[in-house]
Amino acid sequence: MDYSLLAGGKRLRPIMVLAAAEAVTDNEDISARAVNFACAVEMIHTYSLIHDDLPAMDNDDYRRGRLTNHKMFGDAMAILAGDGLLTHAFHVATQAAKNGVPAERVLAVVEELSMYAGLPGMVGGQVDDMLGEQGVTSLEQLVHIHVHKTSDLIACSLRAGGHAAEADYKQLTAFGLFGRNVGLAFQIQDDILDLTGTEEKLGKPVKSDERQEKVTYPFLLGLDESRKRVAELTKEANEALLQAGLKTPDRLIEIADYLLNRDH
Amino acid sequence: MDYSLLAGGKRLRPIMVLAAAEAVTDNEDISARAVNFACAVEMIHTYSLIHDDLPAMDNDDYRRGRLTNHKMFGDAMAILAGDGLLTHAFHVATQAAKNGVPAERVLAVVEELSMYAGLPGMVGGQVDDMLGEQGVTSLEQLVHIHVHKTSDLIACSLRAGGHAAEADYKQLTAFGLFGRNVGLAFQIQDDILDLTGTEEKLGKPVKSDERQEKVTYPFLLGLDESRKRVAELTKEANEALLQAGLKTPDRLIEIADYLLNRDH
Fold first, then answer.
1. Which end of chain A is more exposed for a tag (fewer CB within 10 A), N or C?
2. Nearest-angstrom CA–CA distance, B261 and A55
3. Binary contact (B104, A103; C-beta < 8 A)
4. In the beta sheet, which residues pair with residue B66?
């Protein structure tokens, strides 16, 4: 569990939790209140990477610049490390109640985590991805898979930060939309980088999508149109945020800009 | 997820949830309040069976009289079905708040589920079991593994039923003890039945422990001493229950007696 959780990575999801909470309120304690949810989403993200990397799934040997969990510890321990991280994520989330988050808000976050990470979300997205590997032909199908595989947990992270700061309905909805778009832009950018990046910067072999004959955005739309899509999605995401009556949406918008321009 | 969840089985854990709730109060609505937790623990139990049966783990072909999940749907789908059930268990548990269970009690159940099912509980027990397969030599080690692999979720089920009925601290503690002992007795009985039962009654091949050279209670203690252990543990469990000031502990005691005398 530690090996994969502490392997680095962008920490995008926990940053989203904290940035969303800080966008709602300038209360100085807000990070301490939101930090449990930040840890929970990173644990869920890490569990999903460990299981996705297994030989039965994507069969990847490297992740974040080092051997994948099952390459280090064997398939059984990797399955259990994922199970342990997923379960522990819910534990860590409940502890927010001891850091000043009202019980109803903590319950709302647990409920949302279990949906966005579960069959209606990430798990369903991964199932569709596995089943569709031979047959994805339309942009619509690809968007559907990525909304669930990637966007859902990002949207959930933002909403969790919102709940920690007791955001209102309008703000939570804007966080959901922002997360959906940024998550999709992030995934398209990932596909682009797999084609155009270097192994040194990415910490994993490039052009793996091509080798595995995966249907990606650049494959369906071409590189230029894919890049345009990233810019449009980011613009829409920022607009949703600016109309939600947030105190300080700046940092979230910075993150979206960073995702648009990253090279790893 | 449906294939394994609806495959039958004894439904011991959900029955424990409902029986514990009914032991605390004679409120007629109590089953409706406790039923979410009953579903949650069965989902967690089923996920653990699906993952334990995988080729990377115990590599079992049959479960509850039919092909195991990965034999039907492949390893990837079995991993995802387990992930989906584990995640959905937490979702179902949160919905108890909509059936009249106070938010603090629902949170307590989510917190306990995440511990008893996680690294300090079932996942840790399975890890120790896998790591110990070559080297378990003492009864102490075997008890440690089974307390976590089996007892923890049973204890958690009883405590969840208790929380649904707003049990007091003393009652929750008695449920925990009862669950620990009954779970251990249940596991010893499983080992005994693997040696003495028939494939027809068990719905799975017998003597699989011997074939896999597993260290079991009958292996360490002999059949007679193992049977005596089951009786002692059940007696202790019943005594703990009778001293907790419960309204109607009868059904729980009936369940313990059933476990002691079952042949499948």
1. C
2. 43
3. yes
4. B63
Token reading at A31: 């990070």
Q: How far, in Å, CA of B88 to CA of B199, rounded?
A: 32
Average pLDDT over residues B92-121: 97
CA distance A48 to chain B (A): 9
How would you classify residue A65: left for phi > 0, otherwise alpha for psi between -120 and 50, otherwise beta?
Answer: left
Task: Report the alpha-carbon distance of residue B105 to residue B34 in Å, rounded.
Answer: 11
Contacts of A110 in chain B (CB under 8 A): 90, 94, 107, 110
Mean pLDDT of A229-250: 94
Q: Do B130 and A76 touch (CB under 8 A)?
A: yes
Please give the domain boundaries of chain B with CATH numbers for all domains: 11-261 (1.10.600.10)
Task: State the complex-level ipTM.
Answer: 0.92
Q: For residue A94, give the nearest of B97, B107, B126 by CB distance.
A: B107
Phi-psi group of A197: left, alpha or beta (phi > 0 → left; psi -120 to 50 → alpha; rest → beta)? beta
| DSSP state letter for A7 | S
**Span A234-247, mean pLDDT?**
94
Give the number of beta-carbon pairs within 8 Å between A and B.
115
Instruction: Tell me the per-residue pLDDT of A100-120, one tens digit each, with 9 for 90 and over.
Output: 999 999 999 999 999 999 999
Among A87, A107, A127, select the one facing B118 at the smallest CB separation.
Answer: A87
- A114/B57 touch (CB, cutoff 8 Å), yes or no: no
Q: Which of B82, B107, B119 sits opposite A84 (nearest CB)?
A: B119
CA–CA dist A41, A43 (Å, integer):
5
Task: Output the pLDDT for position B16.
Answer: 96
- CB pair distance less than 8 Å for B90 and A90: yes
Q: What is the pLDDT of residues A180-217, one digit of tens each?
A: 999 999 899 989 998 888 777 766 777 777 777 778 89
Hey, which residues does B63 pair with through a beta bridge?
B66
pLDDT band at A243 (very low <50, low <70, confident <90, very high): very high
φ/ψ of B240, rounded to 5, equals -55, -40
Interface test mutation site (partner B, options A79, A98, A126, A134, max chain B beta carbons within 10 A): A79
